Amino acid sequence: METVKLYVKPTNGHIFLDIPTDYTDCELELVIVMSKLKNSEESKSIRYDFSKFSNKLEWDGNAVEEQRKLRDEWK
Fold this sequence. Notes:
Mean pLDDT: 82
Oligomer: single chain
Order of helices and strands: HH
Helix content: 10-25%
Radius of gyration: 22 Å
Distance between the termini: 24 Å
């Protein structure tokens, strides 16, 4: 499996892809997810403050033990 990430600017509402690959003479599954990019200046200015959540959770359990239980459920 190979992931390719491209940033494109559509012309007249059309996107043309020319992606070189090492695959030849085979069928490939191509999944395309498109989302509009935010202005880079906008994304830099948006910061979320998570400090209001710090020290809100009280738990007396053993974290490693709980992780092992969850992993055992996957088997």
